[in-house]
Amino acid sequence: MYFCTCMYTIKKSLGQHFLHDENICRRIVAVLQENDFTRLLEVGPGTGALTKYLLDIQDIDFKAVELDAEKVSYLLKTYPGIRDKIMQADFLSIPVPFDSNFVLIGNFPYNISTQIVFRVLDWKEQVDYMIGMFQKEVALRICSKPGNKVYGLISVLVQAFFETEYLFEVHESSFTPPPNVKSAVIRLKPLAKSTPMKTEKAFFNLVKTAFNQRRKMLRNGLKGLFDAETLNDDIFTKRAEELDVHQFAALTFRMSY
């Protein structure tokens, strides 16, 4: 489905809801600049609401990645300074865009926002921090703590490696076209001290398996990962949503498989 404006089309198939509220744009850029950085990647610049401010930041190596060819053409015509800085590509398929550490920012398309977070996890050694606009529900899930009904797989996997901060909410009217949900901006910063775990592979497998059957006691859902004696421990009478990141990580050292 397409939503037409005088200069470009908005493609709902790509999850396009373009930010037009200048106050929100300036607020996001102000948060971004609370920390120093020298390399910046913008994901999904769209029609350039944030881009025009990012191009004005001095002494940084700036790049942007945009899938939609029409929006790339629009950006090149509207903001000539972006030439040689923009890639027409699928963010989920590109290699790491810089040789050294960088910061990532974006008003993320709702339909791939979770996949973007997992990409950031893949690149966690290179990402100094991330400022992202998400559907409010997804933002809450990423930042949620144990015992909350939205606490889940993505909460644990992100918080094992990043400090999460729920910054502020954004009303539907700040976008064209307005989405049917509120949005929120969050920040991810790498933890000062890494979470000890047997291996990342074991940790991901454990957390994914646990939340695949989140209503069951861990004892029933994790039979394939621990021996019978270990499963007698009281911690396995809990449900996945009751365990924090450190408890999951500690359990990896007790896994049999």
Main attributes?
single chain; 257 residues; alpha/beta; 7-stranded mixed β-sheet; two-stranded antiparallel ribbon; 9 helices; 11 strands; 29% helix; disordered N terminus
Descriptive account of the structure:
A seven-stranded mixed sheet has the order 6-5-4-7-8-11-9. A two-stranded antiparallel ribbon has the order 1-2. It has a two-stranded antiparallel sheet with strand order 3-10. The longest helix is centred in the last third of the chain and has 13 residues, at 200-212. The protein contains nine helices and eleven strands. Helices cover 29% and strands 22% of the residues. The protein is of the alpha/beta class and 257 residues long.
- Secondary structure: helix percent: 25-40%
Strand order of the largest sheet: 6-5-4-7-8-11-9
Query: First CA to last CA: what distance?
Result: 47 Å
Give me the number of helical elements. Answer: 9
Global outline: elongated
Low-confidence stretches: 1-6
Indicate the structural class: alpha/beta
Topology:
Layout: E1 2-4, E2 9-11, E3 18-19, H1 22-32, E4 39-43, H2 51-54, E5 61-66, H3 69-78, E6 86-88, E7 102-107, H4 113-122, E8 127-135, H5 136-143, H6 153-159, E9 162-170, E10 175-176, E11 183-190, H7 200-212, H8 218-221, H9 245-251
Parallel strand pairs: 4-5, 4-7, 5-6, 7-8
Antiparallel strand pairs: 1-2, 3-10, 8-11, 9-11
Short description:
Helices cover 29% and strands 22% of the residues. It is built from nine helices and eleven strands.
